Amino acid sequence: MFNLFNNKTFWKNALKIAIPVAVQNMLFSSFSLIDTLFISRLGDVALSAVGMSSQWGMLLSITIFGICSGTGVFVSQYWGVNDKKRIHKTMGIALSIGLAVSIIFFSISFFAPQIVIGLFNKNASVVGEGRAYISMICFVYPSLVLNDVLSTVLRSTEKVKLPMYTAIVVTGLNTFLDYCMIFGKLGFPKMGVRGAALATVISEWAGVAVIVFISLVRKNILITKFRNVFRYNFADLKVFFAKAFPVMLNESLWGLGTFVFNVIWANMGYEYYASITIIRTFENIAFVFFVGFCSACSVMLGKSVGSGEIKLAIEDSKRFLMLVPVVSLAVGIIAIIFRAPIVSIFNLGENISDLTLNTAKSLILIYACDLPFRMLGFTFIVGVFRAGGDTLNAAKLDLGAMWLSALPATLIAVYLLKLPFLVCYAFMFVFEDLIKLIFSFIHYKKLKWLKPVTDEGNEGLKEFGNG
Known about the structure:
Layout: H1 2-5, H2 8-40, H3 44-80, H4 84-111, H5 113-118, H6 124-137, H7 141-156, H8 161-183, H9 193-218, H10 226-230, H11 234-266, H12 270-307, H13 310-337, H14 339-344, H15 354-385, H16 391-416, H17 421-446, H18 455-466
Helix pairs in contact: 2-8, 2-12, 3-4, 3-6, 3-7, 3-11, 3-12, 4-7, 6-9, 7-9, 8-9, 11-16, 12-13, 12-15, 12-18, 13-15, 15-16, 15-17, 16-17
């Protein structure tokens, strides 16, 4: 085990990618934290309504993540052989698909916001606040696609600092505008939840402007002739969808499953859902410790597989799979120890009920105990299997654990056994993460996740098999 980690090149490459990506995600998590803290001062109803509205946007974000994950599979492997032409075509395909999806989500949110909110809760106050928020926040959807796809291409080509700088601008601007627009400070009108939504819209579009402007100045990998990006043909789409579609379907259906879970929790009571909103903010912050490692794992493995260095890819995968549980255990212990002060931060305005606060403390305890299992499963699926090119089996493992295990078990716990909210919430974790982890480990040992998309990678795999 020591020999695996006694490798300076591994640490240099891993930390070069992991640290900027982790900082970027910490900033975006702070973005979410600040929104939640400000909105919590408006009370349970506003916090719950915004949390429910955000789950619709989260479904879009997960779909975009699927598109970007599929994109990353190609870009990182093409980067291994310095094929910029195919990198640009892949970027164009991802932008086209992502923007089309964002327009669908925008149309539903803008023209029928009451339908979206009505899925979660029928309380008139909650629906009213939710409608006000979602009819404004929907203008951010196209910018999410642009930001995420462009950042994915940069990270997959080992250009990780620009996305981090963009996150600094977005988070700083959002904090300032949140303060001004929600509470009516510094000459701005007092807009409540609509102010929070408008602040997010302005901040995210500013982020797109920053990433495009700096790319133009630096002439980085994003900058090429328009026709190089969007003049793709049916053959290019066929190659892309062969690998990317399982990932896109995976994330979309996983997001839909999460959406169903949120509908279940919301209908168990808006105070419970307010606690869910708090725990989700905490989850986002805890997740930054792992998203950097997982991004580094994906880029390093993808580059090695694409260039035919199969043995190096396997060795690096072992390093990441040993590192993640250790870090997650440490983060989980810290979360358990400090869960009370963490939750108290969200009650600075003293408008949150005791039921919401106490439930949130218990949810953090459940999440912390599950964290090593959840993050190891995430690394298997996103960091190893997808990077190796095995997007289909990654999707089967991820979706099978949710739709065939966790969701049925939770529905039985809620509607047949009528168990308490906290027990039902724990069911979701246990029946998803343990099942996923067991089957992922079995698949990993078989090495069938090594499926290059380049000629060099296939030749390297052939040599490895004959070695």
